[in-house]
Structure formats: structure tokens, C-alpha cells
Amino acid sequence: AAGWSSLDAYQSEFGKIGTPGVVLDDLTHALTEAIEELTRPVDAIKHQAKTVTVGISRSDETLLQVPLVLEVLDAGAPRDRLSYATLRSLAELDPAVADVVGFTRYRVEDGEADEATAVVIDRGGVSLNLPSRTERDPRLKGTKHLVAREHELMVAKGRGDGRTVLIIPETKDGQTTGLTLLHLRLAEHLPAATARGVLSGYRRRYQALRDAVTETEDVFRDDLLAEQPVLDLLCDPILDLADRWRS
Question: Which pTM was predicted?
Fold first, then answer.
């Protein structure tokens, strides 16, 4: 209880003469015992935390060995500019990617602003022979600007050339500082369970598709995922895709 108590009361309660020295000695002893009692669980907590940290570190290392993640790093994206969410999304998307045939990296200024700009800083593969709109107009537009704003990767199909690309944000301190664009060849189809995993980890499309379908249908048939082209599963508007489940 909070409050003041006389040294005389100390003797009545503890059977000792309540001199300041005795009180301080008893207080020191009590605190020492309490600290020793706490030390064991604290050590156990530290050990558990270390175990969890090691587990997380190993999980991170596993993500860094995923082929699609390695492709992004090989293209030059700095590891410290790829968020954990981005690494997880790349890992979930990996089964859908048959091959990476080129890349373009952009430096981005004011990525979240309307006046955002981007300039090409590196290229490889098929990208070497492709013109870049940013060479004549550095304003960041369209899907690239959306990725820069949302800090979330996206698969897109070019309207002009029909090429399939994956746009990955590079961020620092909550700001987009760059984009890595990979030119992809996607798998044609995937087993239903694999397709579900890909869509669950990519922009929450599985959940959105299931919700759209069950607006009118009693159940969502996962088996129909295997019949859909992977490009459609990743890029078609959800409501258009949901029509394929309507009976």
C-alpha cells in the first residue's frame, strides 16, 4: 500500500528494531531475492526470443533463396529496399513464373506524389532492345505509379506490346525510391492448389475472387482454378473472372 509508516511500526510488523540501516538492509535483501527470482524467467524469455529470432532469420534466408526473389536481386534491387511483404509476395508468386527474360530498373523521385518521375538506371535481357517512354517523358504514370504509391508489387500486361511484366517497388523509410521491372513468361496453367496459393499471396486475389463468386453461388469451386490461364488469374478484373464460376 502507498503511504508513510513509522520505524516503530516496522518493529511491530517484522520483529526488528526499525533503524534506517536495518530497513535499508532488509530492503536490499528483498530486492536481491526478487531480482534473482526474475532472472530465471527473464533468461528463459531471452532464450525463447533468441530462438524465435533465429527462426525468423532462417525464414528470411529461405525467402532469399526463392528463384523469383533471386531474379529481383540479380537485377540489382538492393536487399534493404525490398520489404518483407514484398519478399513474401515474390515467394508466393514464384510458382506462376516459368522464366524471367529481362529487366529494367528505375530510379524514382517523389514516388507517392502526382508529379513523380522515373529514369532508367539499368537494363538486361529483352529490355535492352525496347524503347522506354521515360526517355522522352520522365513522368511516372499508370501501373508503375500505382505500384510506387501502394508499395505493392503487381503483374501487368502491356497494352501496346502485350508483354507480361512484374513491377516491384523499392522502398526506404516508407518512400518509393525505385522500381524493378521483370519481363516474364508465365506458366500456362497451374494445379488448383498451387493456383490458390499464388492468388492468396498475390494482392489477396483469391479472397476477392471467392467473395465475388459467392455473391451469387453457394460454393466456390477451387478445381476450376486449374482450368484458367495463369495470366487471366493474375491480371483480369475480379468481376470478369468471377463470371467463369457462374452456373
Answer: 0.75
pLDDT of residue 54: 46
CA–CA separation, 195 and 206 (whole Å): 9
Contact 186, 230 (CB under 8 A): yes
What is the distance between the alpha carbons of residues 77 and 153, in angstroms, rounded to a whole number?
13
Q: Which domain holds residue 124?
A: 67-186
Question: What are 102's three cell numbers?
Answer: 529481362
pLDDT, position 19: 54
Write out pLDDT tens, residues 175-202: 999 999 999 999 999 999 999 999 999 9
Query: What does the pLDDT look like over 96-116, one tens digit per residue?
Result: 999 999 999 999 999 899 999
Give percent of the chain with pLDDT exceeding 90.
66
Residues with Cβ within 8 Å of 205's Cβ and at least 6 positions away in sequence, in order, are: 199, 233, 234, 238
Same domain, 166 and 86: yes
Domain boundary residue among 154, 186, 218? 186
Is residue 196, in this structure, part of any structural domain at all? Answer: yes
CA-CA distance, 153 to 113, in Å (whole number)? 18
Q: How far from 191 is each of 91, 204, 213, CA to CA, in Å?
A: 17, 18, 20
Both 226 and 166 in one domain: the answer is no
Compute the 3-state secondary structure of the chain and give helix, strand, coil in percent, each to the nearest 5.
55, 20, 30
